[in-house]
């Protein structure tokens, strides 16, 4: 810390209690100056030789036959006046970063200018501030902190502005050129000399991080911090990521951890101001510089402290631009009254919708430039895939809420486009959780809920689980079983037709599997509609038996035991002639008739037999 000594005479000021200060001298004091609650018994001549204002006040007191002068609203109080008085007496005075602003404001109040005496206190303090204080990183911050209690004097004397400019300029210095100590207790390490074999090998100097100034700035009050950060941003030389890190560090430093402390009457106003200030200072680079996790945490605090709508919407827009980086935990925003749900699902839905709008605008821009289709856009930008995954996880979490309406769940699930959800395992887990926690759903509601899921996009493990899930509608279970058999059939057929490409077939993409499965599905359904099933192939007990097909045994082994039991219940043999109308299950686009490969050929050869309906 820099300091400056003024004067050479010994300090002879003495105290008599807390409210009386006097000077030890052979001459009796002839004037009493009152500053606050302290009375200074001093001599007129030394004071009048340095202060123009004291000259006027002493003259006025003499005309009133009084020896007391009351200094009203004296900047810096008794301590600042004592510094000025000692300077007038020529006594030793030490100025430093903690008292220099008070001394400067007091000298201004007393009009201790060069017009009164050459080399007066104002001149000396200005030299000290400009040549020492403002050149020091730590001293500039300390001085700026002390200006708060001396407003508006410190502002009018431009001390605040000069300190802010000094600090902002130093933050822009190349870290390689930072030679001063920073972060108060953390000093730069001395060059480390590495010696090998008794000889100097190289010097290793600890590098200074780019955000070396962030921690020191956290010591500033919110008003001063805002002004400094505004100055840092206005210079245009600071990377947005560092500014984002600085704001995050400041928020962690000043925002309390507990919810009760956040919303307490004592600190609620300060916390609200703090959040609004941080939002105002966020970099204008569309949220790229700040992590999505930090923005979501800031949004949660903003809701708790009740910030205005503009700040909250700004945060939501920034979050929508980085939603692919979010985690399920960060998205769990507590709901506020009068909402009855545990989490604010509506706010997350709004963020997702804004995210989709942003992606659509970006997609349109790309289409205009490169004439690239939607699929190419998604393949080129995997962010939407991450958004779909995190929202499915969020749906699974909020599905546990008994007060969450079915409409809210469905609306949020549908806000994710199909191409952003290539696999429906996460959505299936969310639907299953909702069914588990909401047992009172009607059959129509369960059907509507399960319509969100495409069974063709379930993995093998998810399909096996769904096939044995009693909570799912029977129609969905049949669809799962049907497509799994079609997919298995497609795999077997591919291996039989292309034995040399067997190893390569296992690495097919999801899109290839879906294409193959769809073709097989259409082919099998077409054959099923053109053929009749032999009555003798279905015994009365309903178990599936095949006499003439060599592939039936291997085909049946592809189904789990529970799946076969379900089919035992589904197949009913009718004895009348003609074609019966199929039920809801058989009437779906994914009929279970094609579950067993190889059967359609046999069925086609027996067209003379009766056709039985599937109920």
Automatic annotation (TrEMBL):
Keyword Oxidoreductase belongs to the record: no
A Pfam family per the record: NPH3
Pathway the protein takes part in: Protein modification; protein ubiquitination
Residue intervals of the NPH3 domain: 211-487
Alphabetically ordered keywords of this record: Phosphoprotein, Ubl conjugation pathway
GO cellular component terms listed in the entry, alphabetical order: cytosol; membrane
BTB domain mapped to chain residues: 29-97
Biased composition (Low complexity): 583-594
InterPro entries: BTB/POZ_dom, NPH3/RPT2-like, NPH3_dom, SKP1/BTB/POZ_sf
Bias-annotated ranges (Basic and acidic residues): 532-551
Record field: transmembrane: none
Chain intervals with Polar residues compositional bias: 494-508
Gene Ontology terms describing biological process: positive gravitropism; protein ubiquitination
Residue span of region Disordered: 494-560, 576-615
Family of the protein in this entry: Belongs to the NPH3 family.
Protein name per Swiss-Prot or TrEMBL: BTB/POZ domain-containing protein NPY1
Natural source organism: Gossypium davidsonii (Davidson's cotton)
